[in-house]
Amino acid sequence: MNMNNKNIIKIGLFGYGTVGRGLYELLQRVPESGMVISRVCVRDVARHQTESPSLIFTADRREVLDDPEVNLIVELIDDADAAYEIVTEALRRRLPVVTGNKKMLAHHLPELIELQKEMHTALLYDASACGSIPVIRNLEEYYDNDLQVSVKGILNGSSNFILSKIFNEGMDHAAALHLARRLGFLESDPTLDLDGWDSLFKLVILTLHAFGVYVEPEQVFCYGITNMNDNDIRFAREKDRRFKLLGLAEKLPDNRLTLSVIPHLISRNKFIYSCEDEFNGVVIKGLFYGKQFLVGRGAGGHPTSSAVLSDISAIRYDYFYRYKRMDCAGELPVFSNDLSFRAYVRYNTEDDLDLMQFEEIYERYTSDKFHYAVGRVNLRRLHDIRPLLSERGIFIAAYPPD
Ligand code: HSE
After folding, report:
1. Domains, the chain, ordered by start
2. Which of 10, 152, 165, 202 is flagged as catalytic?
3. How far is the CA of 156 from the centre of ligand 1 (A)?
């Protein structure tokens, strides 16, 4: 960045929701940081101006981008298309950018990497994945000389919060959802959290930093907890397990790489079993060190804005992602859905069961209102029938043997 440590960072902020406001509050608490918010672009100027009279709000994005004082852009809006326009425009003007927009990043990372290189301008986004956990910078910087095997974890705070409330406090789904919304954990469209899409976007970003491979979100099987019901919860309890919605990127033999977002039935002996509430937990596995576990708050205004703050500081000392794994000497792994795994499937009709095309069935149960099978299913098949699974109210969870 074209400034030395004594210069003040003058932030042009886009968005004043949970994280944008969180950033403002954090900056109030650390006046010595040398960072100020110059202008804020929002849709509803009047509302925010009343809330925070000391800030300058505008609805016109050019007023922020054109402000000669602004020397860094922080983009925290929830419209991925508008975010893309703002971020690319800022980079073209050689304004460094910090963003938390996982959906936008997951869809545009390759071109954003090129644009950063072309403009010699940094785009940092640790806040986009796992809130306060510096997982991207860890993957980028630390595991340089090791062979990554897998990155697996709870990447969505609100669904984990909801699952925790249901499992630990017996709260019903609707009440837990309401509480998650009140605490500011959910996306404005909560289906992004509950159906796994938010986890998927984060997984795509982490995969690029862990393995140097960009996988389009549409290629990945992604299934959330929307269809989970009381029978599923009872099943998990009987087996002494808990459902956790996990994103997984894993190297397979023959240099293949598989990605998925699926609820897992997790047993007590796993690190992530006790990762509760809005916390995220990421298990990074390497060939030489085995497993490491990063845990921290994955949602909420202050935890996420602390990651934004950290990225702003990093830009001050000219940090940028080097995407080293994309340029590694060996061949990059190739994405594949060709994998079968053991799953618990709760279904409604025999047709549903046929639809799954189980490779093997180990266990089956049927009663008037509850039918399930445990068996091997193929990820590619699940990806092909994804809309039908949703429509038919089928619930599916990976059920690894202990
Ligand atoms: N809705 C997201 C979550 C917010 O619950 O994890 C943080 O990315």
Report:
1. 9-124 (3.40.50.720), 139-297+332-398 (3.30.360.10)
2. 202
3. 5
Q: Which residues contact 122 (CB under 8 A, 6 or more apart)?
A: 1, 96, 97, 116, 315, 318, 319, 320, 321
pLDDT at 3 > cutoff 60:
no
Environment class of residue 310 by beta-carbon count within 10 Å: exposed (0-12), middle (13-18) or buried (19+)?
Answer: middle
Taking the C-alpha atoms of residue 280 and residue 133, their distance in angstroms, rounded to an integer, is 8
- Whether 202 is catalytic: yes
pLDDT the model gives residue 143: 80
- Tokens coding 34: 């040398």
Distance 199 CA to ligand 1 centre (A): 8
Burial of 296 (0-12, 13-18, 19+ CB in 10 A): buried
> Which residues on neighbouring strands pair with residue 244, listed in sequence order?
264
Q: Is the pLDDT of residue 145 over 90?
A: no
Pair 133, 295: CB distance under 8 Å: yes
Tell me the whole-structure pTM to 2 decimals: 0.97
Q: Is 223 in the pocket of ligand 1 (CB under 6 A)?
A: no
Tell how strand 221-222 and strand 256-267 pair up.
parallel
Q: Which tens digits make up the pLDDT trace of 63-108?
A: 999 999 999 999 999 999 999 999 999 999 999 999 999 999 999 9
Instruction: Please give the sequence-ordered ranges of beta strands (E in DSSP) within 72-196, or none if there are none.
Output: 72-75, 97-99, 123-124, 148-154
CA of 227 to the centre of ligand 1 (A): 20
Q: Does the beta carbon of 158 sit less than 6 angstroms from any atom of ligand 1?
A: yes
